Amino acid sequence: MEPEKTRKRRVLDFIRTWFNAHDIFGILSEDRYKSLKLRIILLDAVLSMIPLLIVVTISYFWFLQILKDDFRNQMKWEIENSKQSIEFFVDQKLSGLRFLTSAYSYEQLSDQETLAGIFSKFKQECGGLVDLGIITQDGIQRSYVGPYNLKGKDYTNQDWFHEVIVRSVYVSDVFMGYRKLPHFAIAVKKENPGKGTSWILRATIDMETLKKYPYSMNLRENDDAFIITYDGTLQTPSRSHGNVLEKYNLPFSLHAQATTIQDIINPDGSHAIFGYSFIDDSPWILVTIIKSNPYLKIPKIFKNELFIITVLSIIFSIAVTFVLAQTVVNRIKKADREREEAMANCEHASKMSTIGRLAAGVAHEINNPLAIINEKAGLMKDILETSGDLQKNRDKFISQINGIFDSVNRCRTITHRLLGFSRRMDISHDAFDLNDAVKEVLGFIEKEVLYRNITLNLNLADNIPKIESDKGQLQQVILNIINNAIDAVEEGGLIEVSSASKDINSVRVLIKDNGSGIPKEKLKHIFEPFYTTKEKGKGTGLGLSISYGIMQKLGGSIQVESDAGKGTAFTLEIPIKLVEV
Amino acid sequence: MTDNFEQELRFLQMRFIGKILAGFTHESKNYLAIIKESAGLIEDMIKLGKSGEAASSQYLEITHSIEEQIEKSAGLFKYLNRFSHRMDTKLSGFNCNEALEELIALVNRFANQKRIELAKDFQQDLPQIYGNPSMIQFLIFSFLEENIITLDQNSRIIIKTETANGSIMIGIIPEGNLIEVEREKVEFPYETYDIVLKQLGGALTRLKGALKFTFPLKVSDI
Amino acid sequence: MSQTKILLVDDEVEFASALAERLQMRDYDVKTAANGLEAMALFHNSPPDVVILDLRIPGMDGLEILKNIKIFDPTIEVLILTGHGDVESVAEGMKSGAFEYIMKPIDIAELTSKIDMAMKKRIGSRD
User: What is the crossing angle of helices A394-423 and A297-387, to 10°?
Assistant: First the structure.
């Protein structure tokens, strides 16, 4: 469980850094803008490319399928066509025979000479006719015209004879005939009307005419079409599947349905499309095998176009994304700069305000010691004017003079604070003593604290190293917090200020008061700009948010602990070494 | 561009305040020094056993001098107080004469070092204007400072105020010879001041070294 | 004319004692108090004619003291001491019944003339 959780957390953290919304006080350096831009472009490009690619791929395969289906339909149609032609061809031959049996009587056709005459005439019309003959209902060849000597042959034991007697029509499969050429035979039975007898007219046709039908189909290289019998014997020569009367291995068993197209895998592993159709009233099946995939030629062109369009789209979308990302990031940059500017302006105004108040405070404070000097000098003057001699009241005078010295020193201390402050008007990063800085700030609020009877406890550690930071800004923060503490405790409260080393890298200043405290619901808002708990007109609400910003900039932090009625404690953490943020 | 200008302005403003406060502190230190010395002198006189008419009258002189220094100090701090309060709020209605008075009082030390007299020629009933007094003080100070640096010793600068056509005119009129000054001493960001002036809605015209600032009665915010 | 009784309330002891002495030399009867409590105590013991009051003293708001005095005896006049630029407190003080105000550091001649005027008013209002 544990490793999984950390892994999950790591992943989340990684994602978070990748898509991080930056802290309101974070200052983005140029690098972050570049990486932000990159992230936007990548994300956007990927997101826009995925649907594009999906659509393109789906379209492509869909198109491919359509072409395939189309081709198959075409193939089916051609097979149908051929099948029908073959059927017609057979039918035609059968019709011819039937006509002969109607037009001529048994006696006429039995006559050899008549038969010969009919045969030659019939042969002219019917190309491929090899022989013609009458067979009695007993199965004996009665008359015959042709290359063989079949007169008187007995067919009673032959299947075809039985079949023609039963069905009245017969079409044979191909056999090796005259001159070792493939032939097939057709026969019709003629009933003698009213007599109950019948006779058979039989003809042999050479296969050449049959051959042309599969050949007429639109075949390309690697394609093949041929006729087979139900057991797979080839009836016409095939291009690559065997010769006439050879056995063709059917890839699967064929059913006597309508024309069927099916995908097969050849013995050598290649794919082919297998189409077949049973030829009615014949023992034949027309078979077509397509290996060539001609329909793929079109997709190739299509593929190229598609590819170009896709690539152009991608380029276009990336270009657009790039421009958009640029615009967006520039806007963000601008907004960030403006925000920084506004913050800087706020800080500046706050600084001015602070200095103004400190300077005004100095001006106020100095009135008393000046007044003292004035009175003492005046008193000495009065005494001299009344009593007349320098030495008469010498002790008194000396004590007044000492009083003047004390006041002069006091004035000096007060104005010296101002000098210290004015020297730091420009930013500096010199190392300084934290406790001195704290004491300087306390110097400014001494009078106020005294005036309000507030007890100030100092607990400044001795062993704090000098820190590299912006003294003026840090003092501004401390002053802000202490002023808030003074306001919180009002009369007679307690404020504790302590300093200590936190670790080898940072020091800590703690400012605690026992004032009214901040309720928990308000606590999370106090660092927000313009949030103030003071009444309207007093306080801008800017102090703490600026203090927060300053601490962030100095590489430190400011934290607060408080609750209603329980006082407030602010902790400042300051790095010892200067931090570039 | 704007970024730099704002940053520079803030820096210059801070420097201005720093200079004012530093100058003021030094001046008040001077007063305090005199007071201390005077008191010390009296102490010495007493300890040395001096007495009699001469001693007494000298003594009176010294105490009188102390009171004088106190009065001057008090005046100075009064100006400091006013000046500091202007830094607290950005926009307010104020009297230009008063604002310039503070400025002059606090800048006197710089002028005195070269014995340059800062003479006031204020129109008495100058109307109040509404604007950013601290920024205007900063602007006038910057040009005043330039004049003080480039004028010869024993010269004079007249600071004049008057009202005309619904606006206030502040004039800085140097009287005296100009001296050669090393370039580094006078790096004067004219562009920044121009922008500030423009943003305040004011205008500046120069005539033979004299500067004339015009501000409308309602100065815009910066 | 009997001496004008003055109560000087200021937390700056050095200042108060020197000023008190100077005023004594000018024939005023001056007592000093460093805070509100002392002031009120002296008040009840021997009420003064004129109070010179520094508004910014710790312990009790100067303004409150002023108001208490006025409640105690509205004919007692109060002069408020103030530093330069302390305009708001002066305005408040005057509103709460102070007679006049003086800025520190003090011009002794100005102070004495204002004390006399206050005294005159007090005498006038008592009769």
Answer: 170
> What does A187-220 look like in DSSP terms, one character per residue?
EEEEEETTTTEEEEEEEEEEHHHHHHHHHHS---
CB within 8 Å: C85 and B82:
yes
The structure tokens listed for A34 are 């570049």
- Which residues does A261 contact at the CB level (< 8 Å), separation at least 6? A72, A75, A76, A273, A274, A275
User: What's at A354, amino acid-wise?
Assistant: T
CB B41 within 8 A of CB A380: no
Contact C108 A378 (CB under 8 A): yes
Pair of tokens at residue A362: 């100095």
> Which of A338, A351, A352 has the most B C-beta neighbours within 10 Å, making it the best mutation to test the interface with B?
A352
Of C15, C25, C83, the CB nearest to A364: C83
Whether the CA torsion B161, B164, B166, B169 is positive or negative: it is negative
One-letter amino acid of C108: I
Whole-angstrom Cα distance, residue A245 to residue A224?
Answer: 16
pLDDT score of A389 more than 80: no
**Nearest CA of chain A to the CA of C43: how many Å?**
22
- Helix spans in A104-192 (H): 106-110, 112-125, 159-167
Question: If contacts are CB pairs under 8 Å, which of residues 16-75 in chain C contact chain A?
Answer: 18-19, 21-22, 25-26, 56-59
pLDDT of residue B54: 81
C102 has a chain A CB within 8 A of its CB: no
DSSP chain B: -HHHHHHHHHHHHHHHHHHHHHHHHHHHHHHHHHHHHHHHHHHHHHHTT--SHHHHHHHHHHHHHHHHHHHHHHHHHHHHHHHHHHTT-SSEEE-HHHHHHHHHHHHHHHHHHTT-EEEEEE-TTPPPEEE-HHHHHHHHHHHHHHHHHHBPTT-EEEEEEEEETTEEEEEEEEES-B----GGGG---HHHHHHHHHHHT-EEEEETTEEEEEEESBPPP-
Over residues A61-103, the pLDDT tens digits come to 888 888 888 888 888 888 888 888 888 888 888 888 889 888 8
Contacts of C84 in chain B (CB under 8 A): 74, 77-78, 81
The answer to whether B46 contacts chain A (CB < 8 Å) is: yes
What pTM does this model have? 0.63
Whether residue A22 is predicted with pLDDT greater than 50 in this model: the reply is no
Q: Which of A254, A222, A228, A265 is nearest to A243 (CA)?
A: A228
